[in-house]
Amino acid sequence: MSSVDELRIKLFADGADIAGILDMYADARIRGFTTNPTLMHKAGIQNYEGFAREVLSKVTDRPVSFEVFADDFPEMERQAREIATWGPNVNVKIPVTNTMGESAAPLIARLSSDGIILNITAIMTKDQVGIVAAALDANTPAIVSVFAGRIADTGVDPVPYMASCLKLLAGKPKAELLWASPRELLNVFQADAIGCHIITATNDILKKLSLVGKDLDAYSRETVQMFRTDAVAAGFDIR
User: What does each of the 239 residues of the chain score in pLDDT, given as a tens digit?
Assistant: First the structure.
């Protein structure tokens, strides 16, 4: 593929920096946004709801996912229902299990049947995808986030893995498969090739979209120039 314009997959930006979110929001190719408590913590955010409402005051026409952070299901449900009221473009992120490994499927079923648009997160196995698919209401849109990047970190090829996940969601046409935690821009094209619906990536990966189709001879020369410039700047000398 030689052009970003040929991509069918939806590009989402993953982050918790307001300036970075607005930078991506200015790009019409970015179709939505995701964040999570870890990204927010690293960004130094202390007021969860305040941050979320600031984002939603600026990003009004594209979906934004905000995650519950409780570990017991009754409180998780309370948080989910509250987050869902923050705006019409909010997707509520629910982890596939709690920290004890207990399935969130019953909670997913209740929220989805009530019309709440969910983003089921931290999914790693095909069994989890099947369980989530069974729990989702067929009439309610949802995102099913499989952490393909982390799966790849274990030595497993994520491409056939994600293709299998797509088949598991076939019975829920309003559920979209999201390729989460990509490690490089190539993952965008891999996800697109298998028909994955969404990929969410950090700004540093998405900014590499400008490199698509770049002449590799020119890129090689630029790289040599970078090495030369840095060597001179460092004052290196061999005698």
Answer: 557 888 999 999 999 999 999 999 999 999 999 999 999 999 999 999 999 999 999 999 999 999 999 999 999 999 999 999 999 999 999 999 999 999 999 999 999 999 999 999 999 999 999 999 999 999 999 999 999 999 999 999 999 999 999 999 999 999 999 999 999 999 999 999 999 999 999 999 999 999 999 999 999 999 999 999 999 999 999 99
List domains and CATH numbers for the chain. 4-210 (3.20.20.70)
Strand partners, 199: 11, 179
Are 47 and 16 in contact by the 8 Å Cβ rule? The answer is no
Report d(CA 30, CA 26) in Å as an integer: 8
**Cβ atoms < 10 Å from Cβ of 45:** 18
Per DSSP, the residues of 93-131 read EEESB-TT--B-HHHHHHHHHTT--EEEEEE-SHHHHHH
Of the candidates 57, 125, 126, 56, the one whose C-alpha atom is nearest the C-alpha of residue 92 is: 56
Amino acid symbol at 39? L
Rounded distance between C-alpha atoms, residue 152 and residue 146, angstroms = 11
